[in-house]
Amino acid sequence: MAIERTFSIIKPDAVAKNLVGAIYQRFEAAGLKVVAAKMVHLDKAKAEGFYAEHSERPFFNALVEFMTSGPVMVSVLEGENAVLRHREIMGATNPADALAGTLRADYADSIDENAVHGSDAPASAAREIAYFFSDEELCPRTR
Ligand code: RTP
Ligand code: MG
């Protein structure tokens, strides 16, 4: 399995609960390396663009409102099978369905405020990374 990159967001609820370090600890313990990271407060247009695929869904406005309600940590994580690995660490979208020991089981309050985002496929990872980071902001990890 080749080294892969994925895109991660620690959402406003988890940032507000001071869980940034705890969540990065899970990623690093699982062998995912941080190759870029920054805190940003999304505006409406940036959040709408990010979740454009959900624009016709009934929860879209609430999702955008939540994602703009406070700062988030956006990161690029690198490792073997990183997209799937990261999804496993996050757990199911609805924390009620998330396996014990996953981030959403441990830290999310609801399907609307569910602590983390992770790319769902390598193609979306590439698109989402480029939506937030320039190539110069990505730091190759040689060790
Ligand atoms: P994400 O994109 O945030 O990583 O979450 P996901 O892949 O697990 O879920 P997705 O289907 O992409 O949905 C994006 C976000 O929209 C909210 N959502 N609400 N009320 C609902 O039925 C519902 N469904 C989705 C969630 O906050 C989800 O993370
Ligand atoms: Mg998704």
Automatic annotation (TrEMBL):
Catalytic reaction list: a ribonucleoside 5'-diphosphate + ATP = a ribonucleoside 5'-triphosphate + ADP; a 2'-deoxyribonucleoside 5'-diphosphate + ATP = a 2'-deoxyribonucleoside 5'-triphosphate + ADP
Example of a GO cellular component annotation carried by this entry: cytoplasm
Residue stretches making up the Nucleoside diphosphate kinase-like domain: 3-140
GO MF term (any one): metal ion binding
EC numbers on record: 2.7.4.6
Entries under CDD domains matching the protein: NDPk_I (cd04413)
Subcellular location: Cytoplasm
Secretion signal span: none
Active-site residues, Swiss-Prot/TrEMBL: 117 (pros-phosphohistidine intermediate)
Residues annotated for ATP binding in this entry: 11, 59, 87, 93, 104, 114
GO aspect biological process, one term: GTP biosynthetic process
Record InterPro entries: NDK-like_dom, NDK-like_dom_sf, Nucleoside_diP_kinase, Nucleoside_diP_kinase_AS
Protein's UniProt keywords contain Thylakoid: no
Keywords: ATP-binding, Cytoplasm, Kinase, Magnesium, Metal-binding, Nucleotide metabolism, Nucleotide-binding, Phosphoprotein, Transferase
Record Gene3D superfamilies: Nucleoside diphosphate kinase-like domain
Requisite cofactors: Mg(2+)
Primary location group: cytoplasm
Known partners and oligomeric status: Homotetramer.
Family per record: Belongs to the NDK family.
Free-text function comment from the UniProt entry: Major role in the synthesis of nucleoside triphosphates other than ATP. The ATP gamma phosphate is transferred to the NDP beta phosphate via a ping-pong mechanism, using a phosphorylated active-site intermediate.
PANTHER family documented for this protein: NUCLEOSIDE DIPHOSPHATE KINASE, NUCLEOSIDE DIPHOSPHATE KINASE DDB_G0292928-RELATED
Name under which the protein is recorded: Nucleoside diphosphate kinase
Lineage of source species: Bacteria, Pseudomonadati, Pseudomonadota, Gammaproteobacteria, Aeromonadales
